[in-house]
Every structure is written in C-alpha cells, then in structure tokens.
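Q: What does the assembly look like in three dimensions?
Context provided by user:
Components: two
Sequences:
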Amino acid sequence: MSCHTSPYVSKGLLCLVQFHSVRLLGGKQLEEGVKQHYFCIEKIKMALVFLPALARMAVCGGTHGNELSGVYVVQEMERQWKEKGECAWPIPVTTVLSNPRAVKECRRYIEKDMNRCFNRATLSSPITDSSPYEVLRAHELNNLLGPKGSTDAIDLICDLHNTTANMGLTLIHYTTSDWVTLHICKYLQTKLTKVPVRVLVLDVPISDAYSLESVSKHGFSIEVGPQPHGVVRADIYTIMKEAVDLTIDWIHKFSSGMVFEGGDVEAFRFIKSVDYPRDPETRTLTAAIHPQLQDRDFCLLKRGDPLFLSFSGETVKYEEEEPLHPFFINEAAYYEKEIAFHLGKKMMLTIPSVQVQKD
Amino acid sequence: MKAVAMPTVSRVAVCGGTHGNELAGVYLVRERLKRRADGTEPVSVVTVMSNPRAVQLCVRYVETDLNRCFTRATLSAPVSETSPYEMIRSQELNALLGPKGSAQAVDLLCDLHNTTANTGLCLITYSDCDWICLHICKHLQREMASTPVRYVHFDIPLNEAYSLDSVGKHGFAMEIGPQPHSVVRSVIFSAMQEGVQLMMDWICLFNSGTLFEGGWVDVYTMVKNIDYPRDSETHVITAAVHPNLQDRDFCLLHPGDPMFLSSSGETLRYKGKEALYPFFINEGAYYEKGIALSLARKRRVEIPSVRSETLR
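A: Here is the predicted structure of the complete assembly.
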C-alpha cells in the first residue's frame, strides 16, 4: 500500500497511514505509533485518507451452531444467490456456514469452541487424526478465507453471533485503528435507529486474536441479543439481516468512490472478566446476576452497586473504585468459561475521512 | 358445589433438573438439598435431582427426553445396560416416587421446569378436576403479586401421560418462563422459590384442617400444536414466529392473525377457524419436536370447597 501524497496529509497522519499498512503484517508497532501521534487527532479529523478497495467480503454464520440468527441469514443469502447469482448483491459476497456439524446438532460446538481456534498457534500446528473437529475446520476456513495475515486473505469477514445478554447490536473487533471497520461501525450506528449499536474493542494483537474474523484483512463480529441459544426470534433476525445489508451497502458506496466523513466513534475497550461466586468444592454457582444488573449491559457500574444475588438471598456488591461498563451479562455459553460478565472502559476513537484509493 | 373432603397430602416430592439445562429448578433443588430436614417440617418432602447426568453436562437430555419416559409402556418395558440412560432413570424414579397409579406413590409431585417462552408461571397437569392442583393454583394466583399464574391441562389418560408429574397421586409441572436454557435469571429463580414455598404453605394449611373456599379457575386445555413452515425437501425451518405473536403467550389468537415471518419477509397467518390461546410460543426445545406453539381453549371451571379428611 502506498502513502498517498494528498495536500491534506500532514506528516503525523502520513505516519499513521504507514503504520496502517504495517498492521497487515501484524505487530505492535501500530499501537506505539498511535500513542506517539495522538497530537494529530485534530488533523486526522480534517484529513482524507485513501484506502485500498475491498474486493470481496465473507458473511459467516453458525460459527456457534446454536446461535441461530446467523444460520438463517446465511441460509437466506444462499437462497438469494441461487435465485439471482452474482446479481444478488452489489459487491462480491461469499457466504459460509462456519461449523456445519454443530449447526446440524444445534450445539455451540462439537469438541472445542471453534471461535477460539484462529490464533496463530492453533492455525500453524499440524493436523492429526486426533485433532478436534473444530481445529480441522479452522484450518479449512483459514485456507478458504485466509491465510490469516497474508495478502491473499479475503478483505472483510463479517461473523454473525447471538448472545443471551441484552447487548442490542454490538460490533466486536480487535483493534482501535482499522478505519474501514470503524467507518462501517459509524455507518451502522447512524442508519440503525431501532436498536442500540455499540462498538467493542478487544485490543489484542492479531497473531493472538483467536476468533474467525481475525483471518481477514478487516473483520468484525456482529453480535445481537438477547436471544436464547437454539431459538430464532424474528425481531433479532431482522436486526442482524439489516446490519449485514448495511455493511454490504457501505462497501458498495466506498468502492464507488464515495467519501465517508471522519469523526468520533464511541467504543468500549475490554478490561477484564468477572466470574460468578462459586462453591469452593463443587464449583457450582452460589449466586445469579442481581436483578438490578440483569439486562443492563453497557450501563455504568459504580462502587456499591449490586452484582449478584445468592440463592440464599445475600447481595454481592461491586467493590472496585473505578466505574466500568459491564457487558455480556449472563451469557449462557460463558458459565463454563467462568465469566458472569465482562467489564470495559468507554473511549472515543477519532477516525479520518476515507475514500477508496484510485489506481 | 358441595364441599369435598380429601385425603391429606402427607408425602410431597419436589423434582428439578428433569431437563438438565432448565436451571432454576436445578439450583432450587441444590438449595433445598443443602438445607437438610431437621424433622420439624409438617410435611414429608423428598427433593430429587431427576436427571443428574444431563445436569452435569447442562443439556436437556443425554440420550432421550426423560420427561417423555413415564407412560405405562415405557415404565414397564424391560431395561438392560444398553437401554437409553433416561429410560433406566425413569424406572428408578418410578420406584422411588411411585409406582405410578399405586397407593405407595407420593401424594403430590411438583416437577420444576423452565421455558424460553413468555409463559409466566404455569401449573401443567393431566386433569381439569384435580381439586388439590386447582386449589394450589388458586392460592398461587392470589398470593403471587408480580407473576401471572395459569392452569394448563393436557387431556391425556393416565396410562399415556408421559411426564414425571404423572407418577404422583396428584402432580403438576411448575413451568416458569421466559428464561434461556442453560441460564439462571435471578427473578425466575425467585419466582420458582416463591411458587414452591406457597405450594408447601397451602399443603400445610390443608393438612391441618383449613377449609379452602371454592370458586372458579380459568383452565387452558391444550387442543393442538402448530409446526414451523419448513422446506419440503430439507425440512429446514423457513420462517420464525411473527413479531406480533412472539412473547404473547395466552393472548387470544384469531383466524387471520399473523403467525410466522419468513426469512424473505413474507407473513403467514393463522388459518384455523376457531380463536384459541397460544402458549409455549417459540420454546427452544420444541424445534426438534416440530412444535412452534401450542393452542388451547379456555374455560372457567368451578371448584368445590375442600378440606382434609382427617379432621371432621
């Protein structure tokens, strides 16, 4: 990727654009670069960054076989493709049912959580007969949509998920500096008015990133809740379908040369997880999420606020000094991962205006 | 109606984890088992974790749905080591709490369940004239302020009754929703705890000779099930419960009302001729049973005053 010599590009911003291309090779230089050039924030807002076109995107559903909205979105998109072929969408789209065996059995996974199998260690370790099904499948998907970190990787993966937590529509990705992903987030926040749309950043280096969307050059998960696993709700399906359609819409507009104005995007950065109170011997839960916290994802949790209500009636409170925002509150699949909820910090990300690079 | 004298309810069973991922009942049974009986309880209660293996794995069932294993045929079928786990377990539970239909069976069996449907609290039984169950329902309706309580009746003869609650002389499933499977929600747990406590309170009062005044109870009798629209070849579901129907359990459904919304945006409507009451709308475990919702008729049933037999 070349550094475009636009009259808008200041020296500081030029460095950021250079660091952006370094990101594709992986590494921590980007994080350092952003810290060093924070003073360019205002210049970023006024500048225009030229980015490479997105040739193709993948929409993946059923990465967890019992998160049904994504399964039905992919099913519907496949039906549209059978009917209309390449004309089904204004840009090239590949649809993937990520974990077909888990989908068939309507389970999260067969042997191992597939959405933890995309870190470099797992993708580069050899496959044997005794490898878990999901590791085999992760290798297959990495060949199909990656290889992760290479220039052959597909431009964008949009991975579809549901949660039992009351998270509305949450867009999840790894870094704070992927302008494409952040612009799509901003676009969805503007266009989707019936549901809260939030951005969650995990802040993990790409090689350690373990989920499917880290395989592509740009990637994010669309998480919609609340929906029980193994259930499809029409209202939740509609929200997810609309989010996918708007993502395709953004890419189409971007590829056609439209300028997307920069600005501020509110996001939440993952800080840590909190487990349930458990019996020390049996490890079974001794309390449930407190009724005053249940369904209040992304609220501000302050010292003294109730967290858990034990089955024998005692309240456990939040004891930390720092107010933080809880999310994934009471997600069914996280009981076995020893997570009652995550905590995050709110932050403002500044993104420049972007336009597709002309050849 | 004339007052009816009935035998005391001396032996009660409270069962949870019949489906291993319906967690309010699992945690309620665990709590009850922690608090050991000190012998002062006025009623003999046995607390049972019905399907321990399914609870351990947090799945509905391991090989076959335990709550379909209590028909006379299944209970009397010969079992071997290769029989499904739940079939072996149903015969164990029948020996412990039954035998079904005999004088040794527990007087009342309360089986705790959760549903992803927005049902509130339902007592589900096979009889519409079991005065004990109907009076307990009336008591819960009176005392539970924030939870709707309803009586649901499946008109099936005892021999064919397939669920655990049919093992007791009186019995019902106490079903509370909405709660996702494999999740425990505090308010749902509390409602179930309250429901069980109120049931125990009623039984104690009844056993000590209290006269419970008769009256009327709305009974919902199941008429039929409706499946999802499916692809004729693959059998895959092609539409979800319509947003106008989702979460509206026990709201009257009229002919022509929207029922399903297809993935491509088409509305499918209720084609029946009779307005009926839908319930178990979008229960996750029923997709594999081919049930999107059940439909019931409602009628007012008159119940007599009741008093226990031992005190005249």
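Follow-up: Helices of chain B lie at 23-34, 52-57, 72-76, 85-97, 131-143, 186-207.
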